[in-house]
Fold:
Amino acid sequence: MNDMTLIPRADVTLPEVQVNRHWIGGEWRGGAELSDRVSPSHGVVVSRSAHGTEAEAEAAIAAARAAFDDGRWSRLAAKERAAVLLRVADLIEGAVERFALIETLESGKPIAQARGEIAGAADLWRYAAALARTVEGDSFNGLGPEMLATVLKEPIGVVSIITPWNFPFWILSQKLPFALAAGCTCVVKPSEMTPSTTAMLAELLDQAGLPKGVVNIVLGYGQPVGAVLAGDSRVDMVTFTGSTAVGKAISRAAAGNLKKVALELGGKNPQVIFPDADLESAADAVVFGVYFNVGQCCNSGSRILVHEDVAEAFVARVVDLSRQVRFGDPLDPETQVGAIVTPEHGAKIDGYVQAARAAGARVVLGGAALEVPGLGAQFYRPTVVTGVTPDMPIARDEVFGPVLTVLTFRTLEEAIALCNDAEYGLSAGVWSENVHTCLAFARGVQAGTVWTNTWMDGFPEVAFGGVKQSGQGREVGRYGLEEFLEIKSVVMRIGRTRANWVTARHG
Ligand code: NAD
Structure:
């Protein structure tokens, strides 16, 4: 049955296996024990990475601590820090092809998308460089003739950065250049599934002239490396992107020294479609929102709420467009949707679909694994599920696959209530030509980002983050820099004007 558009295996020679080691104190370390990453799309070993130990994580923290405390980076003029970040941005731009190829093979994402992410990451470094020179505080000149106060902003200190597999280099670049712009030093742990581009960045940082020890990279798993990075009392802040469950574990580990925690977690993001919307554009955005990165995206628009009057026609159009999306070999530049990250994750996605089917929902498209000619690894069909009720796990949990869940509504109030009946609050969207509907929705919905008549547009300037169990803190934009700054109030007396507290007793 021709129910979708398939791109078979491309005629591309695979690169040699990439070997990754830790970068600690400006030196390559480790490698006695290596972990293999098998490509989810091509089924071959892509990279072999040092398997980090507790001792290596601690050595990296010690290096970052020493680099922060001696001021080799934190006390540089912001202009000099910005110059290094700009050089890194240029070097990333020169490495787009090399980085995109390995990112594609490790993650399963399409090469065209990976190229866009690496090039876009360079822009994040450039934007952070500009922000570095804008750090400013407050001054209080109205406290009386003898007093003057200023509020300074200082780098928070040593920052642990822990990242996930779905956008490895992009998410790293939402954090690291902003922490560096603020003057922090860092210890980074990428996902064990997609470590290469993070390890490869070390070479670029070195070439750009970043002082040794300012950024340290430890490869490995959540246990022990991630847990040490979250728990160690020499670390002042941990910034994490990943699942809500691990985010909670990190919060608990960080409580030991009450280090600051910033969390970017999961989402179950609704798009609400009103009958007066540009339905053609809305249908296209829904299809983009759910299949981008095979739905393995915190911002996946995985549930839509469609007004009853247009639901049938709208879903038919979404199904029609879904059949035209190009699924297949991520190395073909034509491919729009690639592979599922692991076989276990593929089984989890299918489990949600089959449970919904068993509970009475209708799978109107897909609902099964996909064979891509010439590739033996894991893919999943574009899938649309209707007849879903709000209590079903498929309507509430982060499925993290190419699976669209459709609910219907009658009124704006009902739509907002359905959106907010969720543990998550990352992003939400509304489609209507009526500005009042859009504004009422934007104000009423519980989400860190609201898109009106668009989906997943993002900019380095615009803060990103979640409410409820989607996280705490914000990334990118001015707020993204502020997360890495600590506030110090300096209160000054002018002249010998202070009245003594202790005075001689009379009588
Ligand atoms: P994950 O939580 O399994 O892993 C993320 C990172 O945490 C990895 O580096 C992992 O090794 C590490 N880790 C695991 N256990 C740890 C522990 N006990 N202590 C410290 N570190 C530990 O997430 P994932 O599967 O890599 O990524 C998918 C998840 O990330 C999804 O839930 C997705 O929504 C979320 N995500 C959120 C955003 C956002 O900006 N809100 C962006 C992308 C992904």
The chain has a mean pLDDT of 97. The pocket of nicotinamide-adenine-dinucleotide is lined by residues 162-167, 171, 189, 191-192, 221-223, 226-227, 230, 241-243, 246, 249-250, 264-267, 298, 398, 426, 466, 471 (CB under 6 Å).
